[in-house]
Write a structure and sequence with these properties.
By secondary structure, the protein is an alpha+beta fold. The protein has 19 helices and 45 strands. A hairpin with an 8-residue loop joins strand 19 and strand 20. The longest helix has 17 residues.
């Protein structure tokens, strides 16, 4: 006997019923054939083919048909139903044959297929991207797959290509079936050719605009499809088409045609598919004139507050909403008594006039906010959650509107309810002419807290398969704790998350409460419906082209047999993204609707582009010391200037398929010519917290205008990520530095112009607990860099370098931040070579230089410290100390802040010369503490605050300069007849840059 069941059980049941009703003879014959096996012993159960989509051991446990038990037709039907419920079979046949004294049952099956990796091979110039084409195919990872889905997928991709100007694209597909995972990998092969360009649009409909008719040229211009300078039109893209239609619609809206409809009816390609003609249909609709009377109101304000502009329709609800929004707008400007009404009338030619009548009343100042009746929460906690803000330096009139006042009432009530005050009442009122000051308003909030409800007993039912002892102990709704729906919602998330992490994907949570024996207490009951537990059958990765599988496999946190944890799946996805070599990591469970306990977990990876090129333009605007030319000895103390710079970076990701990165970084400016080639190795030696970087560097820089340094360097660095705030850098640098173009006394050249080789081993510890590294408001930032240069490392000079930094950030109230930073550095030399100056043995390029926007704003960049006694150019030092203090506060609006700062510090000849003395003893004394005060402005941007600082140096150093050129310096120095001129660092310095000073 053979029973046949197709894929969809419910459908075939209906077919069977119809057949039996229509052909009673067939029904009787089927029953006769089945009856000969009834109650006979099942002596063997086999499966064809072998292996099955589900392990034989699982099938044996799952199916109701068992060996050495009686055969029943109902058991066979139940077994077929159970197999179909798994979702892994397309067709099932059962063959029963007599064998010895019983019956042998054989299941003949055809497994289903599921969507695996969906990729694109194409010559498409973006847009669309490969990811957009894959999304357009609508083949979701892990869902059932049938080849009949492919025509629709190709049609969706073709539509996307046509929308982006590829009218003659050829699309085919390639299938790769992985029988071991029942997975079908689909690759769409696309050949597009060249993107078509727009032609002049053809406009149909009424193009009337007011009393004029909009010309074809005007509509063409509004689309912005024509090239700006070059002749012809731009290439077609979906975004550009949408923007062009919106541009035409905006043209009509600006002429008060709010009901105008502008639609793209078609985009017809020319026979050669190199151009396409857009057909635009326009219905301008009637004129809708929205104005305001009684208050100065520009069109921008009306558009922001009156929703008819956005909705393109007019009704009473939208007009009333506009009146309410305008009322809030003027109340926020201090007109608390404003009244806004509107009138609507029809005039000739279908024109609609909407006039908002605004009666501003007296302009007020929100002077005082009072909160009374609160005992459980202090006033500060409540104020932190409110929108209403009394007048301040930042908000002259304060922030007030009736809508905000009612919103704050609800906010305060929700705060109390979330803490068990279920009967809380919050009311507010406004008092005019507060404290006798006409126009001053005060808002008073009265809180009636009521009783606080608590949990008397907590009962948790339904936790059978999972031990929730520790979870229950961590819940918010414990006995004698606050009873609130807010806490219950948190507890629900905690419990469901615990079940989800242990493979119970269908777990549900219900709660109920009833009054307890004591007043204002409740007995709380949590009921959990666990559902079936699911486990990982196997992890399957797809989409790897150049990446070696071991790089991915070592990050997989789930193993076969583990509970199917959504948290662990997401953690693996995060780690794969952190590699930086995948543009997309799709994660899914195969066969999501199937009824099975063991699941394939799928990770489909889209490798990022291996090559990327970035360019940037920038400039530094500040006081800059002198020019690059050696003949120019002017302005050793700095002059106003601009230094433009260009940078080009080239990066190659995933070198050798092992997740490593090689990058070339270049910078060109009037200060610097720099090129760096680095090789980045993440997780070196498979240690998850260690990364390594190997680099070579060429640097030709003039940032210290005393000399030109040409540096050739090789470096190796290992980074240890100890914890989120703590990072340790282990470095070894070996460099050869040549010095040229020295603008100092020629008699010093033999000592200071020598090239030097330096080998330095260093360790740098960084602790970062700031709330925002770009614009911190609280926290600390500490660094300590310790380095050793010695002949054992191949160094020609030997010294120890210690440089430490401590920065702290404190909030003073809600808006003001006190920030301070202290830097201290010292580098004593040892094993001093005979050719060096024993009083100043550190080579010129290795000395500390400081001053400028990030150290001491009383100096131009790198102008602090000792100077050449003849020319006045800085020579650097072997010790430094800087202390910066800033008071950051709101200045105007939400995005502009002010800063008052005081900078103190200098670069010193040596540690023994470090002093806090503030006076310069003589013109050759530079070892003293320089102070500067100033004011700055910060404008907040997404990439960091734009900074403008103006500093006044209280005690800037004086020094000797040489009034001639370098040739004259050489001549007079040889004859010992040089005449010096006394100069001084300018009292006023300014800095313009991006980012806080520290």
């Amino acid at each position: 006997m053979k029973l046949v069941r197709p894929r969809y059980a419910t459908r075939i049941l209906a077919v069977v019923i119809v057949c039996f009703a229509t052909f009673p003879c067939a029904k009787a014959q089927s029953e006769d054939n089945s009856a000969q096996f009834e109650n006979r012993n099942v002596v063997r159960i086999s499966y064809d083919p072998n292996p099955q989509p589900i392990a034989i051991a699982e099938l044996t446990e799952m199916l109701p048909l068992k060996k050495d038990q009686p055969y029943h037709s109902s058991t066979i039907r139940a077994s077929i139903e159970r197999l179909f419920a798994t979702g892994r079979y397309r067709d099932i046949q059962v063959d029963a044959t007599p064998m010895d004294s019983g019956v042998a049952v054989r299941f003949i099956t055809k497994g289903g297929w599921f969507v695996g990796h969906v990729g694109v091979e194409s010559d498409v110039s973006e847009p669309p991207s490969a990811g957009q084409m894959v999304s357009a195919a609508r083949l979701d990872l892990g869902t059932p797959f049938d080849e009949t889905q492919l025509p629709e997928a190709e049609a969706n991709i073709r539509k996307l290509l046509v929308d982006n100007g590829y009218f003659d694209a050829g699309i085919s597909h390639r299938l790769d079936y992985e029988a071991s995972f029942q997975q079908a990998n689909i690759t769409f092969v696309i050949a597009t050719g060249k993107r078509a360009r727009y032609e002049a649009p053809v406009v149909t409909g009424d193009s009337t605009l007011g009393t004029q008719v909009v010309t074809q040229e005007a509509i063409d211009k509004a689309t912005k499809w024509r090239r700006f300078i070059l002749p012809g039109y731009r290439g077609i893209t979906q975004a550009r088409t949408r923007s062009g239609i919106d541009g035409v619609r905006l043209k009509y809206e600006n002429a008060d045609r709010l009901f105008a409809t502008v639609t793209l009816e078609s985009l017809d390609a020319t026979p050669d598919t190199k151009q396409a003609i857009p057909h635009i249909a326009i219905k301008p609709g009637p004129v809708v004139d929205v104005t305001a009377e009684g208050a100065k109101t520009n069109r921008k304000t009306l558009k922001q507050n009156v929703p008819v502009f956005e909705e393109h329709t007019v009704d009473a609800d939208l007009l009333s909403e506009g009146a309410s929004n305008l009322r809030d707008h003027f109340q926020s400007q201090g007109y608390f008594d404003v009244e806004v009404t509107y009138r609507q009338q029809q005039v000739k030619d279908g024109k609609t006039e909407i006039v908002y009548e605004i009666n501003l009343g007296i302009r007020h100042r929100f002077a005082h906010l009072d909160i009374a009746g609160n005992r459980y929460f202090d006033t500060k906690e409540i104020r932190e959650r409110m929108f209403l803000t009394p007048s301040s330096f930042e908000l002259r009139r304060g922030r007030y509107s009736e809508a905000l006042r009612h919103r704050d009432e609800q906010t305060i009530a929700d705060l109390y309810r979330s803490n068990g005050f279920r009967e809380v009442e919050v009311v507010s009122g406004v008092k005019d002419d507060y404290n006798g000051h006409k126009g001053d308003e005060a808002v008073f909030f009265k809180i009636t807290e009521g009783p606080q409800y608590r949990v008397a007993h907590l009962f948790v039912n339904g936790a059978v398969k999972l031990d929730l002892t520790k979870t229950i102990a961590s819940l918010s709704s414990q006995a004698d704790q606050v009873f609130s729906e807010f806490n219950i919602a948190i507890d629900r998330e905690t419990i469901i998350q615990q079940y989800s992490s242990n493979g119970f994907a269908d777990a549900t949570f219900e709660w109920d409460s009833k009054p307890a024996s004591q007043p204002h207490t409740v007995d709380l009951t949590f009921t959990i419906h666990e559902g079936p537990q699911q486990f990982v059958r196997q992890l399957v990765t797809s989409g790897l082209r150049t990446t070696r599988p071991r790089i991915v496999n070592r990050l997989l946190t789930l193993n076969p047999g583990d509970p199917l944890s959504s948290a662990a799946m997401a953690e693996t996805q995060r780690k794969l993204y952190d590699l930086g070599i995948f543009s997309q990591v799709n994660m899914a469970v195969q066969n999501p609707d199937g009824d099975e306990d063991r699941r394939y977990v799928l990770y489909d990876l889209e490798e990022a582009r291996r090559y990327s090129i970035t360019t940037a333009l920038g400039a530094e605007f500040a006081r800059i010391g002198g020019s690059n030319a050696i003949t120019d000895l002017a302005d050793p103390g700095g002059a106003a200037g601009v230094s433009p710079r260009v940078s080009i970076n080239v990066t190659r990701l995933n070198v050798f398929g092992v997740g490593q990165t090689i990058s070339l970084q270049t910078r060109l400016s009037t200060f610097q010519k720099r090129a760096s080639l680095s090789y980045f190795v993440p997780r070196i030696f498979n240690l998850p917290k260690f990364d390594a970087t190997f680099s070579i560097l060429y640097d030709d820089t003039h940032d210290v205008r005393t000399f030109q340094a040409i540096r050739r360097e090789g470096a190796a660095q290992v980074v240890q990520h100890v914890s989120k705030p703590l990072t340790i850098f282990y470095r070894f640098n070996y460099r050869a530095v040549g010095v040229g173009n020295l603008k100092i006394d020629p008699l010093l050249l033999p000592l200071l112009a020598q090239s030097v080789r330096v080998g330095v081993a260093s360790i740098n510890v960084v602790q970062d607990r700031r709330d925002d590294p770009i614009d911190p408001h609280k926290g600390i930032y500490n660094t300590l860099d310790v380095g050793l240069a010695t002949r054992y490392f191949g160094s020609q000079t030997s010294f120890v370098r210690v440089l430490g930094r401590n920065a702290t950030y404190y909030r003073l109230g809600e808006k003001i931040v006190l920030a301070r930073e202290t830097q201290f550095g010292v580098q004593p030399a040892f094993s001093i070579p005979a050719a060096s100056d024993p009083t100043d043995p550190i080579p010129l390029p290795e000395r500390f230089f400081g001053g400028g926007g990030n150290t001491q704003r009383g100096f131009p960049e790198n102008q602090a410290g000792p100077r050449d006694p003849l020319t006045g150019f800085p020579l650097g030092g072997s010790a430094l100390f800087f202390n910066n203090t800033e008071l950051r506060f709101p200045l105007y609006g939400a995005n502009i802040n002010g800063v008052l700062f005081e900078d103190a510090g200098n670069v010193f000849s040596s540690l023994s010369k470090l002093t806090f003395r503030t006076d310069q003893r003589n013109i050759d004394d530079f070892d003293y503490m320089v102070h500067a005060v100033g004011f700055g402005v910060r404008y907040r941007t997404p990439v960091g605050p734009i900074r403008v600082d103006l500093a006044y140096g209280i005690n800037p150093p004086k020094f000797n300069g040489f009034p001639g050129n370098y040739v004259q310096l050489v001549q007079c120095s040889a004859a010992n007849t040089c005449q010096r001129s006394q100069q001084q660092i300018n009292h006023f310095q300014f800095v313009f840059s991006i980012g806080q000073a520290f």
